[in-house]
C-alpha cells in the first residue's frame, strides 16, 4: 500500500478517528487505525467494538492495499508536521513497518495484521431519516449535560431518542436524566422517523457525534434498528451499539401543577450563582434561592470560608407569588442556565418538590431540577 495525502486532509480525518481508537485499550489492535487505499480514495477506520468511525478522503494512490497503525501516534506525528506538508505513507506488506515521509522528515511505525482488525458491521437498519445538523446539535447540546455517569444505572448513561405523540401530533424527543436533573427537548418529526424505536444512545457516542456536528454539515443521515444506530455526517460514518435497557418513565417526574413562577434574566442569574457559589470549593454545596415579590436573594454558606449573598431586583427578576426558600446545587443550576438564551422561567410548588425550568424563548425545551436541603 502506498499513497500521498496533504496534511490538512489527513489531520482532520485522524482527529475524528483517534479518540475512538483508545490507546489504553487492552486489545492492541483496537488502538490502531486501519488505512486502506483504493484508487484515489483513502478510507480510515477505527473501532472500540462499541463504536466504529469510517471516514473517506481524497488521496493520491500509488498502490492499493490496507494496513493498520497506532492511531494516537500517527495523529501526533501528522499534527506536528508543518502546514502545507504532503504526507507519504508506504507499506510493503506483511509485518514490515509503515514508512511515513514528509519533506525531510521520515519515520516508521509498527503495524498489526489487517486480518485481526475487527469489522463492526451495522447489519439491517430498517429506519432511516434525514435531520438538519443544526437541529440535531440543538437536541444533543440541550440534553447531554444531564446524562448520568453512574455505571450501575447504565440505562441512564445516554440520551433517549424516541417519537412522542400528543394526540395527532408526533415529535422527535431527546431526554436525559441522572436522577438529580432532567432535560427534555423536542423538534418536528423528520420524514421517515415515525416508526423509529425508542433508543438510548451511549454517552461516548454522543460525544463523538457532537464533534462531527461542530463542522457545519448541512444534513445528517440517520439509520437505526433496535440495537444499532448509524450517522452519516459529510464524509464520516459513525456506527454505534445502543444501550440495551429500558429508559424510565420520565414523564412521571415532570411536575404538572407548579404554580409559583419566577422569571429571571439568564445572564444576571448565572453570574450571581457563580459569585455566590465561589465561597465554597465543595461542588455539591447548595445555593439557596429566597424569592419574594420581584426580589431574588441568592446565598451560600461554607463552614470553613464564610458566607456570600447577592440580590437581584425587578430589573432582572419578575415574581409575584408567596415567599419561598429553596436550595439547588450550584453546578446543576449553571448546567441548565447554560442552555437558556435570555430569560429563564422557574415554576415552583414548594421547597421540597421538583422545580420546572423553561427557556421563555424555546417552548420545546424543559428541564426538571431536584432541590437540596438548605
Automatic annotation (TrEMBL):
The job of this chain, per UniProt, is described as: Confers DNA tethering and processivity to DNA polymerases and other proteins. Acts as a clamp, forming a ring around DNA (a reaction catalyzed by the clamp-loading complex) which diffuses in an ATP-independent manner freely and bidirectionally along dsDNA. Initially characterized for its ability to contact the catalytic subunit of DNA polymerase III (Pol III), a complex, multichain enzyme responsible for most of the replicative synthesis in bacteria; Pol III exhibits 3'-5' exonuclease proofreading activity.
Q: Where is the DNA polymerase III beta sliding clamp C-terminal domain?
A: 252-373
The cross-references to InterPro entries, in alphabetical order and at most eight, read: DNA_clamp_sf, DNA_polIII_beta, DNA_polIII_beta_C, DNA_polIII_beta_cen, DNA_polIII_beta_N
Name the major location: cytoplasm
Q: Where in the cell is it found?
A: Cytoplasm
SUPFAM superfamilies recorded: DNA clamp
List the PANTHER family: BETA SLIDING CLAMP, DNA POLYMERASE III SUBUNIT BETA
Q: Which SMART domains did the record assign? A: POL3Bc
**Alphabetical keyword list:** Cytoplasm, DNA replication, DNA-binding, DNA-directed DNA polymerase, Nucleotidyltransferase, Transferase
Would you identify the family this protein belongs to, as annotated? Belongs to the beta sliding clamp family.
Q: Which residues form the DNA polymerase III beta sliding clamp N-terminal domain?
A: 1-120
Give every DNA polymerase III beta sliding clamp central domain span.
Answer: 131-249
Which Pfam families does its entry note? DNA_pol3_beta, DNA_pol3_beta_2, DNA_pol3_beta_3
Protein name, per record: Beta sliding clamp
One GO MF term attached to the UniProt entry: DNA-directed DNA polymerase activity
Question: Flavoprotein among the record's keywords?
Answer: no
Family annotation (NCBIfam families)? dnan
Amino acid at each position: 500500500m502506498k499513497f500521498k495525502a496533504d496534511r490538512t486532509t489527513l489531520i482532520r480525518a485522524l482527529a475524528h478517528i483517534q479518540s475512538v481508537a483508545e490507546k489504553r485499550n487492552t486489545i492492541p489492535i483496537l488502538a490502531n487505525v486501519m488505512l486502506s487505499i483504493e484508487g484515489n480514495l483513502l478510507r480510515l477506520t477505527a473501532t472500540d467494538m462499541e463504536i466504529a468511525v469510517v471516514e473517506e478522503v481524497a488521496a493520491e494512490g500509488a498502490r492499493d492495499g490496507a494496513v493498520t497503525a497506532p492511531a494516537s501516534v500517527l495523529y501526533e506525528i501528522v499534527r506536528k508536521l508543518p502546514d502545507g506538508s504532503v504526507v507519504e505513507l508506504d507499506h510493503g506488506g506483511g509485518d514490515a513497518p509503515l514508512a511515513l515521509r514528509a519533506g525531510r522528515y521520515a519515520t516508521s511505525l509498527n503495524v498489526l495484521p489487517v486480518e485481526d482488525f475487527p469489522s463492526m458491521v451495522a447489519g439491517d437498519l430498517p429506519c432511516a431519516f434525514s435531520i438538519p445538523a443544526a437541529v440535531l446539535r440543538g437536541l444533543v447540546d440541550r440534553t447531554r449535560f444531564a446524562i448520568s455517569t453512574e455505571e450501575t444505572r447504565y440505562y441512564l448513561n445516554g440520551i433517549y431518542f424516541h417519537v412522542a405523540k400528543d394526540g395527532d401530533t408526533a415529535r422527535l424527543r431527546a431526554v436525559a436524566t441522572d436522577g438529580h436533573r432532567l432535560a427534555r427537548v423536542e423538534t418536528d418529526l423528520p420524514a421517515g422517523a415515525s416508526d423509529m424505536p425508542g433508543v438510548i444512545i451511549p454517552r461516548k457516542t454522543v460525544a463523538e457525534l457532537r464533534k462531527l456536528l461542530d463542522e457545519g454539515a448541512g444534513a445528517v443521515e440517520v439509520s437505526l434498528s433496535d440495537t444499532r444506530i448509524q450517522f452519516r455526517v459529510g464524509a464520516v460514518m459513525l456506527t454505534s451499539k445502543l444501550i440495551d435497557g429500558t429508559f424510565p418513565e420520565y414523564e412521571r417526574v415532570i411536575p404538572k401543577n407548579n404554580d409559583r413562577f419566577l422569571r429571571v434574566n439568564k445572564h444576571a442569574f448565572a453570574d450571581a450563582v457563580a459569585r455566590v457559589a465561589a465561597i465554597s470549593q465543595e461542588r455539591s454545596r447548595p445555593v439557596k434561592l429566597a424569592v419574594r415579590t420581584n426580589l431574588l436573594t441568592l446565598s451560600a454558606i461554607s463552614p470553613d470560608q464564610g458566607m456570600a449573598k447577592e440580590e437581584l431586583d425587578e430589573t432582572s427578576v419578575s415574581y409575584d407569588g408567596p415567599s419561598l426558600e429553596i436550595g439547588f446545587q450550584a453546578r446543576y443550576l449553571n448546567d441548565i442556565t447554560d442552555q437558556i438564551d435570555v430569560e429563564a422561567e422557574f415554576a415552583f410548588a414548594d421547597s421540597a418538590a421538583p422545580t420546572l425550568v423553561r427557556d421563555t424563548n424555546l417552548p420545546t425545551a424543559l428541564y426538571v431540577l431536584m432541590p437540596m436541603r438548605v
